[in-house]
Amino acid sequence: MLVIMIGVALGELLNAIAGGRIPSGLLWTLIALKMPQLLGTIVPLSIFISVIWGLGRFYRDQEMSVMRSSGFKWQMMLRPLFSLLMPVAAALLVLGLFAAPLAATATQQKLLEAFRNAAEWGLQAGKFHVLKDGDLVLYVESVEKDGRTLNNVFIQLRQDDREQVWSAEKGYYWLDKETGGRFLTLENGQMTEGGDQSLDFGIMRFSRNDLKLPEQEERVKADSIEMKKSVDIMFSSALEDIVEIQWRIAPALVVFVLGLMAIPLSHSPPREGRGGRALIGILAYMVYVNTLYMSRNWLLKGDMPIAIGLWWIHLLALVITLIWLRRQGRMVGMG
């Protein structure tokens, strides 16, 4: 599952690189910085399925029948089950409360540094770089050791039915801190402009000109909620802070609720394969997590009272699990 999630993230990043929104030199660094977020999604499901398979084996091998005949009750499963769930939940709390904000901050810093560095952006001397789905072509003859200064720059830029060709002796990267825009300053060059449907062509010579490059990746802003430390928003009364802290705690609570739900869900006849129960578990997980995502959006939009927050979803899932345990008590051992 981790490989699948990394593949999905890799596809998104490669698409952003092809569009010129992020530097290719940061590909694997950004993948690594996404790990806290990926693990917060994968670990609860992995534990859920593993518990279903582990307990299901007792039923398929008739060991549960022997245990029940010896007075085994389903409540006796809680101690060994919690010995697994508690350290996993603690690890998820560390990931959500501390690792994820640090990763978001590191992502911000890496991108800011890369936007000032032509080498990390992926520019290679003597090669044509196609960005913005072919609307921007950039060629650099050489790059100075500082990673910012470009020599003999060629740029072809297409906007609607107009096309511009820029050439300059030197170029410099710089970043507008206020707007976040990324610019290339060209010195001692000229720009030729024309249209496909018209004959009006123009040539402009310049000593300096600032050209705005493609927008960078939709990354976290300097004041983004994902970058705030958990201790700063733990007791905040702001709507976004309340929702964010509940969201960071959610994976740890999901692990406990799904761990309990795995007890009745793992019950299976001796000849039944374990794939069917695992599929039901995946569907239950998808409903649980998707409801969390929707409720988060409803809270942020003000469509749901903040007083109930995300807690009602965990409480509802827990009540359903306890009712399920009660109804199947005759199967897993009454107590």
Structure description:
By secondary structure, this protein is α+β, with helices and mostly antiparallel strands. It folds into two domains: 31-113 and 222-332, no CATH class; 120-212, no CATH class. 53% of the residues lie in helices and 19% in strands. It has helices at 2-18, 27-33, 35-60, 63-69, 78-114, 118-121, 230-233, 239-265, 274-301, 311-327, 329-332; strands at residues 128-131, 136-143, 149-159, 162-175, 182-195, 202-212. It has a six-stranded antiparallel beta sheet with strand order 1-2-3-4-5-6, with no helix packed on it. Helix 3 (35-60) packs antiparallel against helix 5 (78-114), helix 5 packs antiparallel against helix 8 and helix 8 (239-265) runs antiparallel to helix 9 (274-301). The protein is elongated and about 90 Å long. The chain starts with a helix and ends with a helix. The relative contact order is 0.13. The model is unreliable at 216-220 and 330-335 (pLDDT under 50).
